[in-house]
């Protein structure tokens, strides 16, 4: 048996370790742990780049990510506000 655990970062805790230990005490020889998929939303093309960036900044994304995102939005052939 090879169980697959789909988890979020917030679910990495002592309880997860207990679940893994319990699974290994059975006939499990391998456990696959994968990150829960993130659902992305399409942005409203009428929003300005400044408004989009402000929303991401409020969520606490890293400055490096924000810089890449802003550059991508400004040079995108799809997003044209």
Describe what this molecule looks like in 3D.
- The chain has helices at residues 14-24, 49-58, 63-75; strands at 4-7, 32-35.
- The chain is mostly helical and 81 residues long.
- A two-stranded parallel ribbon has the order 1-2.
- Strand 1 (4-7), helix 1 (14-24) and strand 2 (32-35) form a beta-alpha-beta unit.
Protein traits:
single chain, 81 residues, mainly alpha, two-stranded parallel ribbon, 42% helix, elongated
Low-confidence stretches: none
Q: Helicity, in percent?
A: 40-55%
Described by the principal axes of the CA atoms, the overall outline is: elongated
Q: Termini, distance in Å?
A: 51 Å
The DSSP helix count reads: 3
What spatial order of strands do you see in the largest sheet? 1-2
Condensed summary:
With 81 residues, the chain is mainly alpha-helical. The chain has 3 helices and 2 strands, in the order E-H-E-H-H.
Q: How does the SSE layout of this entry go?
A:
Layout: E1 4-7, H1 14-24, E2 32-35, H2 49-58, H3 63-75
Parallel strand pairs: 1-2
Helix pairs in contact: 2-3
